[in-house]
Amino acid sequence: MTTFPVKLDYNSITLLISIIALIISIIALVYTIVSYLLKRGNKIRCDISTMSTIETNENYISSITLENLKDKATVIFEIYLRIGYNNFLLIEEFNDAPLILKPFEVYFKEYDPILFYTVNMDKMIINENLHNPKRKVILSTTEGKYIVKTNTKRWSVDSLFFTNYTTAVIQPCRLSYKDKNYGSNTLFLLILKNNGQEDYVKPILKNDYKRKVFVKFDLTEESIDNKENFVHFIQSQIDSGNLSYDSFDVLDFGKRVESIREEYHEDISIQPLSYLKYYINGRVITFIENLKIRRTNNRRRL
Question: What is the pTM for the complete model shown?
């Protein structure tokens, strides 16, 4: 193979250096402009969720998410939902301690059910108007009124089910005591107490009689057969000095777990579907089911 040496004269080198310098200058300019835009004005996007419940007759805002997209803090005094152009529903106010949304920070808040809405000394009925497509979130800030123009692109897995009935939205079921969750093999929660000290919670599992749980004594299969046996067993250990606690309580955690299990139906095993089965077969199944539902509804109308 024949190679040809590349010869660069003075003008070519000067041109190359000039091009590199120009590229660096353009990059620096773009960076400067982007940095300036990130610090100029406000840009916040928002997502609100509404809910209806048997606890109240009115629909209400159940949560709000605010995301600061600027490299500068935004001070917020009040959050409103504008319905139409004349109605401003107060979502939250921070007059005593303004909300300071730091650069690129996200604020999330959940709300409980309401009694009703008021305007002056009258009650206002909102209900379905809460879902008005022209609604806008309005923020009262140190720079005046800010209308949130950008909504968060929030994805919800629940929406998939209504387009494909083979979608399974699996949720973990948990049971907690004092903000701590315990598993389904927990039979009892032994709450040991000493005056002036924090309670000690000891979970007792189904097979704890097979292993060393306590230092000075062992559990027996009979002692954890039911709550009554377990209470007598623990009391005898305290009386004999094997447990140095003043008193105790026992929560029948297993009984509560079984009552929750009874609220559900049969046990089914997970079935992961391939791309073809989910997106093709699933859509066909959904179409057929929807067709059956429409036919049933039409017969009822007749």
Answer: 0.57
